[in-house]
Amino acid sequence: MDNFAILLTFFAMACFIGYFVIWGVTPALYSPLMSVSNAISGIVILGAITTGNDWWGIFAAFLASVNIFGGFSVSRRMLAMFRKKGKK
Amino acid sequence: MIISLFDLFCIILFILAIRFMATPKTANIGNYSAIISMMIAIGISFFPLPEKFLWLLGAIFLGAIIGIIFGEKIKITELPQMIAILNGLGGGAATCIAIAETNILKHSSAISVLGGIIGAITLSGSLIAFCKLQGIIKKRKIFLSPLIINLCFLLAVSAAPLFFDSQTILVPVIFILALVWGIFMVFPIGGADMPIIISILNSFSGWATVAIGFSYSNVLMIVVGTIVGASGTILAYIMIKSMNKNLLKLFIQPDSLTTNNVMEKMPNEGNPEDAAFIMENAKNIIIVPGYGMAAASAQYAIKNMADILEKKYKISVRFAIHPVAGRMPGHMNVLLADAGVDYEKVFELENINSEFSETDVVYVIGANDITNPEAKTNPDSPLYGMPVLDVDKAKVVFFVKRSLNTGYSGVNNPLFFASNTIMLYGDAKKITEDINKILEQ
Question: What's the distance, CA B47 to chain centroid?
């Protein structure tokens, strides 16, 4: 089986998983969902680490890192707001 | 193709993370699963050690510090801007990776250039969205129709790959073109369409990751990027449906800004005393927040009002939220949660709309178009067909507004002139606090 077909299979499966998982999220949490998905889109950093021999790759790692850590930190704060009320 | 059991583990953890986001009770676990998964993924990718790994570690460390400082320091009112900027950085990273790949291989693959193009559009588009949310850019008009501009860029960018095959020098040119396109794409879009455009940019950063993932044959990047892309696309779809817009219209011809507010008659004008008196004697109240609540940071005053009404007067208070209220999906829910409102009292449009007819008082704070009954009755209205909150069915409606100006759509709201509507002019926060003072007496 050729490489591209395997990758495409993963992509197609991920589309279905994404579709069903995202529709399961309650509308009240759309903002944190956006923030978490924003943070995990920083996974592009793996590409940056692979191209780390070039300065552009290192700069990409920096940008993606701000994206990841900023995104998780914003999500954590938003979710903490929901949680402290949930306990009451 | 590179795939290991670690990748599989990370993929499962990322999917579970989003699954945990389904309810407020488990959402926190979701965030931490995503963090753990991301750390494992980054850690694994350092084996075998890249040549300049110290530089890479330094860059990641510096980025982490900057990200965490901004993430922790940002004010709650500035969350939409923060999300826009972070989105842009993710896109920017994809573009830089595409450039780096071209430099290293001395040749570029179409798929990574595609990722770079999407990333560049995300970067500049998000920066413009940030400036708009921050109020730095207020203008929307540009010299040409957005239809022509978008078509030209589409042609230019899609024609470019035909020429770059051996000439890597063209790659940066394509990316600069894409950057300019992003600016022109977002520039004509107005404030109330922000939930749509932020969702679209969010999905772009995911699709850019997918493209880069394909060029590196990296399954983890493809799967995670796809989930992000799906998330942004579905949110955009929900937002577009809730505004009864269509995607093409948004980019081709954004609504013109017209003000056609015809004064048929004078609206009823009230003061905080009237409002407090009527509220005290109500059995149930629904509060409808809009962007005006966010702009005035009135959510704490609102929470206080709900507490007084419930504890002192034993009145049932609920909140009704329209999907597009605010500047990002779920904006109002976050603000109310921040103020301490129990999420079980906050209802989405479809779950509460039938109850307005049995409601004594509706308190609309900083919202306008999402309550406009013309969306149901007047086929000529630009809002026609958009789902709205049926606040006009309640016995008494209070509108807290700065002035009689039209909402974002530029459409007159006949509800302001209805006999059961009372206008409260002024700052959303101050008016609410004034009412609270009287209620407490």
Answer: 38
Residue-range definition of the domain harbouring residue A54: 26-87
> For residue B297, is it left (φ>0), alpha (ψ between -120 and 50) or beta?
left
Asked if the structure places residue A13 within a domain, the reply is: no
Residues of chain B with C-beta less than 8 angstroms from the C-beta of A86: 24-25, 343
As a whole number of angstroms, the distance between CA B244 and CA A32 comes to 24
Helix B219-242 with A30-40: angle, nearest 10 deg: 150
Total domains present in chain A: 1
Q: What is the pLDDT of residues B108-134, one digit of tens each?
A: 788 888 899 999 999 999 999 999 888
On whether any CB of chain B is under 8 Å from the CB of A16, the answer is no
pLDDT at B336: 93
> Which among A68, A30, A41 has a CA at the least distance from the CA of B202?
A41
Question: B210 by DSSP, 3-state: which?
Answer: helix
Domain-embedded: residue A51: yes
What type of residue is A79?
A: L
Q: Is the peptide bond before B48 cis (omega within 30 degrees of 0)?
A: yes
* Chain B residues closer than 8 Å to A27 by CB: 238, 321, 323, 329-330, 333, 348
Contact pairs from chain A to chain B, CB under 8 Å: 358
Cα–Cα dist B92/B114, whole Å = 13
Contacts of B407 (CB under 8 A, 6+ apart): B192, B368, B369, B372, B413
A9 near B CB under 8 A: no
Q: Are A56 and B97 in contact (CB under 8 A)?
A: yes
B347 close to B320: Cβ distance less than 8 angstroms: yes
A11 belongs to a structural domain: no
Our CA-based measurement puts residue A47 at a distance from the nearest CA of chain B, in whole angstroms, of: 7
Q: How far apart are CA B51 and CA B67, in angstroms?
A: 25
CATH superfamily of B272-440: TPP-binding domain (3.40.50.1220)
The 10s digit of each residue's pLDDT in B278-306 is: 998 899 999 999 988 988 889 999 999 99
Å between A84 CA and nearest CA of chain B: 8
